[in-house]
Design a protein that fits this description.
Elements: H1 3-23, H2 30-34, E1 46-48, E2 59-61, H3 62-77, E3 84-86, H4 91-105, H5 111-118, E4 135-138, H6 149-161, E5 167-169, H7 174-177, E6 188-191, H8 192-205, H9 225-230
Antiparallel strand pairs: 1-2, 3-4, 4-6, 5-6
Helix pairs in contact: 4-5
Length: 238
């Protein structure tokens, strides 16, 4: 075998090694997992939902999906259809939502006012419960949808039955409960056996110095964001 052939084979093997190495997911740290800085689509703990339970390509933790499936199947027996509109979101996906809103609102508001306007319904990247794969948005993102008719029936069923499957509406009516943070979201339900563990970890492992990389991130501490928003959930869900 000639020297050139040996060198060529060595070079091919070397290139193959680097390609294979780059395709292997690196271990995800606790902080990265809490802040959505990992590829949930290739993570062994996550699963893509079938379209019979979702409206598009959506991933959740496998344990959360199994419980949602059981809940949706139970609801179907009562004539109620439950489908997931949004599940797991990465840091970059949340950043796109945040930065788009920032660019829209910042035209007329100062930085803090802009931030507060976005935070009515959208979380900062690195701080969304959707990073965890434990929280889902169900059927509609419009408050008016759940006020009457079909939407009201669906919401009433969830209020009466979701807890049996481990789910809780984390953002309730703050005017009635005195909760801080985001506005009421009747569509947002969290699987507590998993999300409460994630929230406990978030409180101990994430600092304001970790919340960075998006527009206005340096102002999070000014509004006491972690206490007021990340921890601003319904007492029934704690």
């Amino acid at each position: 075998m000639s020297f050139k052939l040996i060198f060529l084979l060595f070079f091919v093997c070397l290139i193959t090694f680097f390609i294979q190495s780059s395709c292997i997911d690196k271990p995800v740290s606790d902080k990265e997992r809490l802040m959505g800085q990992f590829n949930y689509k290739t993570d062994a703990a996550f699963i893509k939902l079938p379209l019979s339970y979702s409206t598009k390509e959506i991933y959740l933790r496998k344990t959360v999906y199994e419980k949602f499936k059981a809940m949706a199947d139970s609801a179907a027996k009562d004539g109620i259809t439950l489908k997931v509109l949004s599940g797991t979101r990465s840091y970059s996906e949340q950043k796109t939502i945040w930065d788009n809103k920032w660019n829209n609102y910042f035209k007329n508001d100062d930085s803090v006012a802009c931030m507060r306007k976005i935070l009515l319904y959208s979380s900062m990247p690195s701080a969304s419960r959707h990073h965890w794969g434990t929280d889902i948005d169900i059927n509609s993102l419009e408050p008016s949808y759940f006020a009457s008719g079909k939407g009201l029936k669906e919401y009433t069923w969830l209020v009466n039955n979701a807890s049996r499957f481990g789910f809780c509406q984390v953002y309730d009516d703050m005017k009635k409960t005195g909760r801080t943070g985001y506005q009421e979201e009747k569509w947002h339900w969290s699987y507590l056996p998993e999300s409460n563990k994630m929230l406990k970890e978030y409180r101990t492992k994430i600092a304001y110095s970790d919340i960075k990389g998006f527009k206005g991130s340096n102002l999070a501490y000014k509004i006491n964001f972690i206490t007021m928003f990340v921890d601003g959930i319904s007492l029934k869900c704690k």
